[in-house]
Amino acid sequence: MQNKLLIVCGLISCPVLAQNQPQIVVYGSVDQYIGYIHSSSGVSVTGINDGAVMRSRVGFRGAEDLGGGYQATFTLEQGLFANTGSTADTSRLFDRQAWVGMNTPVGEFRLGRQNSLALLAGSQLDYTERTTYGSVVNNLGVPSRYDNDISYKSPRMAGFQVETHFALSETAGESLGKRGIYQLGLDYINGNYRAGYTGLWAKPAATGTFQDKVIFHYLYGNHDYGQGKIYLAYARTNNVTSNANGQNTGSILNNISIPSNAFGGNDPNVQRTYNLYQISADYRLKPQWRIGALYGVIRDTSGGNAGTKGGNVGAYYDMSKRTTLYGFVNYMKNETNAGFRFGGSGAPTANLKGSDINGQSLIGLQTGILHRF
User: How many distinct helices (H) and strands (E) make up the chain?
Assistant: First the structure.
């Protein structure tokens, strides 16, 4: 059998051309921006950061046609800090994705470390795809990906598509399904309209002080009116806690999943639930130029005065199919007991923390370049 080899020329990958042969592609992105953040406390910070729009990464994906409507697939992907040349997670070779799957006539099945449904829904939530400093959704401890994940995605039928995930806890002495992370997604497309739901549930350890499940729910809808889109988003979660950076800058259920998609149930913040409401729109001035704006509110449903509100305006300029210039002006106002801070596709290394964000108002500026290969 004649082998078809992947040819890589610098950063350009060439998938094999022959049918019924394995197809392997090297892909990735480099996204660097200059970020400036100013707090009403009087403190500012400026830095070069990674990933205002899309986290820098390198990946390998492949597919082999097995015949009869079956196809074997895989993806291996590693996140990078291009501003320093380091990997996003030094403990892993592929921290973003590492899975193998099978496409079949009845849907797609995958096993391994996979992106969460909440992360995948980002492009449907606002014109920034749930990234940049000013996307208020980005402050809610959005779950990104989990280990040991089993997933199924149905074919799209009558506009509907269903996707389910179950990440095993792999804890000795516990029956299958007793703990772990469950996800469910429903997406619907009808012409220029799109709507959907994603949900996540995770059970605590039986010995935990607090037996509340960690939840994360999205509802989204958008309409393509020809020159741009209008977006509506709602989220509800209790996956928000404090850490050394601020009162609302941590996640109870982390994305690294150590140990094995399980959490102890000992964080009292699991009893505090937040609701988010966000509206966004963009408009294409010319084929290369797109402008947009968004506004959002996070409400602390416990009445603890720990919510925030904010938004941004921004612009994208496509220099080519692969290279985009962008710029954003962002604002966020924390309530008295809130400590949310700006994020991005990747958390900025040049950021504020502590008393400079808790109860403060923040202004952020970003300008950068994104190249995809």
Answer: 1, 22
Angle 48-54-56 from CA coordinates, rounded to 5°: 65
User: Contact at 8 Å (CB) between 107 and 152?
Assistant: yes
Q: Which has the closest alpha carbon to 58: 95, 33, 9, 32?
A: 95
Examine residue 22 and say whether the peptide bond preceding it is cis (omega within 30 degrees of 0): no
Q: What average pLDDT does the structure give for the chain?
A: 91
Give buried/exposed letters for 5-18 (b at 16+ CB in 10 A, else e): eeeeeeeebebbee
Structure tokens belonging to residue 38: 């100013």
Structure tokens at 77: 């992907």
- Residue partners of 241: CB distance under 8 A and separation at least 6: 141, 248, 250, 251, 252, 267, 269, 270
For residues 20-50, b (16+ Cβ closer than 10 Å) or e, as one string?
Answer: eebbbbbbbbbbbbebbbbbebeeebeeebb
Q: Which of 166, 168, 153 is nearest to 109 (CA)?
A: 153
At 116-132, the pLDDT tens digits run 999 999 999 999 999 99
Task: Name the pTM for this structure.
Answer: 0.90
Give the pLDDT of residue 346.
76
In whole angstroms, give the CA distance from residue 6 to residue 56.
22
User: Hey, where are the domains in the chain?
Assistant: 7-372
Residue 203's SS3 state is coil
**Strand extents, DSSP E, 40-117:** 44-50, 57-67, 70-81, 86-87, 97-104, 107-115
User: Model confidence over 195-228: pLDDT tens digits?
Assistant: 999 999 998 888 889 889 999 999 999 999 999 9
DSSP string covering 294-362: EEEEEEETTSSS--EEEEEEEEEEESSSSEEEEEEEEEEEE-TT-------SS--SS---GGGTTT-EE
Q: How confident is the model at residue 15 (pLDDT cuts 50, 70, 90)?
A: very low
Reported as type and span, the H/E element at residue 120 is: helix 117-120
The stretch 341-369 carries a mean pLDDT of: 94
- What fold does the segment set 7-372 form as a domain? Porin (2.40.160)
- Amino acid (one-letter) located at 28: G
- Tally the C-alpha atoms within 13 A of residue 269's C-alpha that lie toward its C-beta: 20
DSSP type of residue 139: G
